[in-house]
Write a structure and sequence with these properties.
With about 70 residues, this protein is mainly α. The chain contains three helices and no strands.
């Protein structure tokens, strides 16, 4: 399991504990679940980022190479 997934599980357990103690409608409970949602959104964002192919990596390292030039029309 990745680090962010582990962190989500930890935050989820903490949110459940806070809500059990403070009450499901407390501001502390809402804040705890907001933290879980933010981590889940970050995990989703990381999954959606497309890895670069070899050519893109080459152009990142050699932006002045002829095959990497971009021309405006």
């Amino acid at each position: 399991m990745s680090d962010i997934q582990k962190q989500i599980e930890v935050e989820r357990d903490e949110a459940r504990a806070v809500c059990d103690i403070q009450g499901a409608t407390s501001p502390e409970c809402a804040a705890a679940w907001d933290a879980v949602e933010e981590l889940q959104a970050e995990a989703s964002h990381q999954r959606s980022v497309k890895p670069k192919n070899s050519f893109e990596k080459y152009c990142d390292d050699n932006p002045d190479a002829a095959e990497c030039r971009i021309y405006d029309e």
